[in-house]
Design goal:
Elements lengths: L2 H31 L15 H4 L8 H6 L15
Length: 81
């Protein structure tokens, strides 16, 4: 492989990568536009459920007031040197 072939391979690889990025962005953009009429893209088939689940919510002040605070009486041990 001489320098001309290597440079053509490098430029071609970069252009294909950029083209795939542009296509991906276009698909996501179009999907976001029509998402009110259609379901959003679900990657749950390819990723674990922990990556696609909805985040948990924080407790409200009313819920926090219902919980009785408790103290753990176990002694704290220090690290040995």
């Amino acid at each position: 492989m001489d320098i001309d072939q290597a440079s053509n391979f490098l430029v071609g690889t970069i252009l294909i990568g950029l083209g795939l990025c542009v296509i991906t962005v276009a698909i996501v953009f179009i999907n976001n536009i029509v998402s009110k009429f259609w379901q959003p893209v679900n990657f749950g088939y390819f990723f674990p459920k922990s990556m696609v689940e909805q985040p948990t919510r924080f407790a409200t002040q009313e819920e926090l007031q219902k919980v009785e605070p408790s103290v753990d009486n176990t002694p704290v041990t220090t690290a040995q040197k």
